[in-house]
Specification:
Blueprint: H1 26-61, H2 69-87
Length: 88
């Protein structure tokens, strides 16, 4: 592992996890934030590779499977109306 480089940063009071006692140092806060970003990027990459790409390939192979924008809008509108009825 390469030697760490020193960085300086400032956080507003409301974001200071060190003063709140959640982390022992600013370095821990930054490391946790970077880990979180890496995990999120990994999840997005997996979703793109496994779901989006396979769906795109399937639509390329059989374009008749695609829905028109109007059909998608109608489905979304119907789902929204159904949810609105359940919460009312």
């Amino acid at each position: 592992m390469p030697s760490p480089k020193k960085r300086t940063f400032s956080l507003p009071e409301e974001q200071s996890a060190v003063e709140a006692g959640i982390y022992a140092s600013g370095s821990e806060v930054v490391r946790a934030g970077l880990r979180s970003l890496q995990e999120r990027d990994s999840v997005v990459e997996r979703w793109l590779r496994e779901d989006v790409a396979t769906t795109f390939d399937a639509l390329q192979a059989d374009p008749s499977r695609a829905l028109s924008a109007r059909d998608v809008y109608d489905v979304v509108r119907a789902r929204h109306a159904d949810r609105s009825k359940k919460t009312a």
